[in-house]
């Protein structure tokens, strides 16, 4: 470790270039050479070369109503997550069969944003994208920057199975509205259909000699009974508390009516101060106060909480229908998974018991700069056929946007229960939008910083409401965020 | 030799300097440029907005919280890591009891074994370390709380990552655990090159362990400690803190913003919220903080060099 100092030795060699001098001069050289490279032309964001190519369309025929390019390429990038990639692969095969001269390129990935963000910047995106997962690209940003194709032609095209019926009329409730941001264009088609609510084991509930509680007093009674048997009433994804809204928001909607949730989504002033919000938050807080939440829950992530729940440590879990697939390995065979719409407060609630949150999942988009937008839409039309939908439901245990497609296949317990819950809900299907309109507000601010803190007992309901309202007002005023309203 | 000397040197340096300019300096300049635009990161069109992003940043509470945590990371993590590493490597190399017939200077018994043990976490990628600790911190079934229960401390069951008062410390502990081994090895190598006769002379004069450490080891190791400090500080400001916070914490960044750091905020703004320009603005702030940190450490650490 003999640290010889440069100054000492080399500055004495007269006439030679000292090491320091050399470094100084070469650094200066490096700095000077940089600006001489043309400044803007090499920027990461300036591509746009692809925009010269006009999109290619094929001839519109009865077999090809959307004008897919019959000889060109159709490129499809899929989020390869909890739902896997098989269902999409099968659909691509059908496309290939229908258009034998076309080339198809199918690319499944978990890193949607990493793979595709540079391609959007270069103006060279694929024709169809499942923009989902943790790395999904911000939808509001894509819409705001006019990067997406309006899917209205697809919705008005004849459906794959029945030429006399439009695609639009074969979809489940809420799918079309969810794809709209402001005005009539439909930018996104959500392919999966998720049922959100309170998930539980029917077997565990039977062992307590109870049925799913419809009012909050009954809920507390069931939890008390469970506690006596050494079972916690509730658990949730403590590290990702934005799972709590899956049962809390529809409860607010049931108690106070649809308008309360709409006002919240529209970021109206004092929307969170509505009495229905207060009474629901207080109800949830009571779960904490009475010790009905599984111990340690605030430190569990979604997988850990689902595992604890599957092991029977807790009775109820706010979640979505993907939980059946995600936790398939830990849910015992005789668990008898079921979902229920959230319990209300009492009989004075605005909407009946059964009011549930259901909405689309897996957002599919066709980029505005796609080379073959007709091909991308045609691929979606194929996926929305009864056959492809059944294939999807059978393979991934999830409902699809196609209304129906559950007859003739073996439904798993959770799926069956989800379909029954939708049937019971009828028109009372709610669709809160905060999680797709204002991601940061919903997840980080309301979820983690407010609801998570309240359920861990560190905020009272009154403080929580005040804090959430503050965050909502802040978002409403933030000019860097695009704002949306319910139509 | 004098003739054509510069041409000779330039000839050697063009390729490395060119690479450095393209892959290091150019991205810096680009980022600074983007911080004055409203680029979303989702489309190629954007316009200049002047200092808007900077004024917004100065009024952003989450930015200040992230900055505060990042600074805490840059100060505390190197302090603890390097302190521990110095202690361990001193014990491994010098701190041992004098044994009959052995060399005058040696480490504690089994020191070569310890050296391997300490280095072991360095072999694991930080992502794996973070995941392992996320399991260990699980309040329900995690190793730490199970251990506490096992020794009868049923009433002490902290939430760890779920508790805003503890979460940041939990994350820092992981960083220390995973990097201390590297510095033990680095300092051991440094100590091995300190001539044994210096220690022998000190021993003859009756110096104890503490005196030997502060009067001989530390001064002769100062250069290594200093560069280790800068290196560790940059790790704690950058990649490593991002990895542990992103993988381990609530949210990530929570609970209630108790663990958010600048790098995480850059990532969230760019890739979650589609505000790439604002993200680069925060990135520029991070650059300034990192440069200041390195400059301060270098300045404070300047000492006369000892030759031996």
Automatic annotation (TrEMBL), chain A:
It comes from the Bacteria. Gene3D superfamilies: Periplasmic binding protein-like II. Residues 44-67 are annotated as: Disordered. The keyword Signal applies. The keyword Methyltransferase does not apply. It is found in: Cell envelope. Its main location: other. SUPFAM superfamilies: Periplasmic binding protein-like II. Pfam families: SBP_bac_1. Keywords: Signal, Transport. InterPro entries: Bact_solute-bd_prot1, Chitin_NgcE, SBP, TAT_signal. Belongs to the bacterial solute-binding protein 1 family. NCBIfam families: chitin_NgcE. This is N-acetylglucosamine/diacetylchitobiose ABC transporter substrate-binding protein. It comes from Streptomyces macrolidinus. The lineage of its organism: Bacteria, Bacillati, Actinomycetota, Actinomycetes, Kitasatosporales. The gene is ngcE.
From TrEMBL, chain B:
Residues 67-297 form the ABC transmembrane type-1 domain. Signal peptide: none annotated. Keywords: Cell membrane, Membrane, Transmembrane, Transmembrane helix, Transport. This is Sugar ABC transporter permease. InterPro entries: ABC_transporter_permease, MetI-like, MetI-like_sf. It comes from Streptomyces macrolidinus. PROSITE patterns: ABC_TM1 (PS50928). It is a multi-pass membrane protein. Belongs to the binding-protein-dependent transport system permease family. The chain crosses the membrane at residues 7-29, 71-95, 116-137, 166-187, 229-248, 276-298.
């Amino acid at each position: 470790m003999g640290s010889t100092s440069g100054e000492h030795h080399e500055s004495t060699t007269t006439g030679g270039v000292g090491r320091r001098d050399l470094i100084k001069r070469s650094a200066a050289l490096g700095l000077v050479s940089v600006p001489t490279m043309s400044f803007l032309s090499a920027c990461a964001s300036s591509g746009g070369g692809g925009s010269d190519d006009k999109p290619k369309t094929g001839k519109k025929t009865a077999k090809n109503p959307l004008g897919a390019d019959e000889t060109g390429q159709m490129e499809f990038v899929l989020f390869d997550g909890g739902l896997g990639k098989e269902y999409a692969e099968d659909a691509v095969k059908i496309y290939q069969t229908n258009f034998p001269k076309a080339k198809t390129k199918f690319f499944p990935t978990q890193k949607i944003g990493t793979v595709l963000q540079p391609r959007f910047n270069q103006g060279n995106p694929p024709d169809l994208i499942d923009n989902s997962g943790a790395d999904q690209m911000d939808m509001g940003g894509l819409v705001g920057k006019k990067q997406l194709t309006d899917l209205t032609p697809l919705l008005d095209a004849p459906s794959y199975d029945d030429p006399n019926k439009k695609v639009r009329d074969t979809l489940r409730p809420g799918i079309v509205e969810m794809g709209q941001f402001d005005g009539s264009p439909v930018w996104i088609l959500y392919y999966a259909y998720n049922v959100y609510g309170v998930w539980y084991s029917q077997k565990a509930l039977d062992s307590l000699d109870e049925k799913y509680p419809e009012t909050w007093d009954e809920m507390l009674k069931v939890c008390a009974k469970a506690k006596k048997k050494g079972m916690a009433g509730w658990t949730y994804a403590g590290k990702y508390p934005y799972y709590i809204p899956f049962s809390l928001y529809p409860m607010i909607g049931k108690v106070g009516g649809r308008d309360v949730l709409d006002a919240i989504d529209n970021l109206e002033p004092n929307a969170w101060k509505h009495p229905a919000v207060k009474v629901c938050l207080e109800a949830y807080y009571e779960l904490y106060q009475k010790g009905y939440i599984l111990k340690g829950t605030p430190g569990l992530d979604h997988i850990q909480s689902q595992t604890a729940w599957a092991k029977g440590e807790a009775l109820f879990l706010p979640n979505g229908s993907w939980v059946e697939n995600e936790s398939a390995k830990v849910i015992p065979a005789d668990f008898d998974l079921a979902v229920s719409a959230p319990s209300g407060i009492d009989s004075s609630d605005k909407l009946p018991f059964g009011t549930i949150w259901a909405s689309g999942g897996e957002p599919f988009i066709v980029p505005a700069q796609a080379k073959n937008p007709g091909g991308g839409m045609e691929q979606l039309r194929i996926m929305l056929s009864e056959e492809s939908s059944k294939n999807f439901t059978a393979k991934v245990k999830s409902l699809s946007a196609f209304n129906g497609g559950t007859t003739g296949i073996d439904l798993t317990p959770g799926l069956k229960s989800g379909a029954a819950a939708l049937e019971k809900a009828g028109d009372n299907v709610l669709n809160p939008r905060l999680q797709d309109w204002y991601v940061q507000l919903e997840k980080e601010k309301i979820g983690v910083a407010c609801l998570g803190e309240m359920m861990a007992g560190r905020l009272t309901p009154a403080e929580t409401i005040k804090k959430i309202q503050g965050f909502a007002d802040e978002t409403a005023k933030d000019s860097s965020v695009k704002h949306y309203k319910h139509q | 030799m004098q003739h054509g000397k510069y041409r000779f040197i330039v000839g050697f340096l063009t390729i490395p300097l060119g690479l450095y300019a393209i892959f290091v300096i150019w991205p810096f300049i680009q980022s600074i440029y983007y911080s004055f635009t409203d680029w979303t990161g989702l489309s190629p069109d954007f316009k200049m907005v002047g200092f808007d992003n900077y004024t917004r940043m100065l009024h952003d509470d989450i930015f200040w919280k992230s900055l505060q945590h990042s600074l805490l990371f840059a100060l505390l993590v190197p302090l603890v890591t390097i302190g521990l590493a110095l202690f361990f490597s001193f014990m491994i190399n010098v701190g041992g009891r004098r044994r009959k017939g052995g060399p005058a200077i040696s480490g504690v018994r089994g020191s070569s074994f310890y050296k391997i043990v300490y280095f072991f976490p360095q072999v694991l990628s930080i992502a794996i370390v973070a995941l392992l600790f996320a399991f260990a911190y699980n309040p329900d079934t995690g190793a730490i709380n199970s251990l506490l229960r096992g020794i009868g401390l049923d009433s002490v069951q902290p939430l760890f990552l779920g508790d805003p008062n503890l979460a940041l410390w939990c994350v820092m502990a992981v960083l220390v655990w995973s990097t201390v081994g590297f510095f033990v090895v680095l300092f051991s190598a440094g100590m091995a090159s300190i001539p044994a006769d210096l220690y022998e002379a000190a021993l003859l004069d009756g110096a104890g362990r503490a005196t030997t450490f502060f009067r001989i080891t530390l001064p002769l190791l100062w250069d290594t400690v200093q560069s280790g400090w800068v290196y560790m500080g940059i790790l704690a400001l950058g990649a490593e803190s991002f990895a542990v916070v992103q993988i381990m914490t609530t949210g990530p960044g929570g609970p209630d913003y108790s663990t958010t750091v600048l790098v995480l905020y850059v990532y969230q703004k760019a890739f979650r919220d589609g505000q790439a320009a604002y993200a680069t603005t925060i990135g520029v702030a991070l650059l300034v903080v990192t440069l200041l940190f390195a400059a301060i450490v270098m300045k404070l650490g300047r000492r006369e060099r000892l030759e031996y």
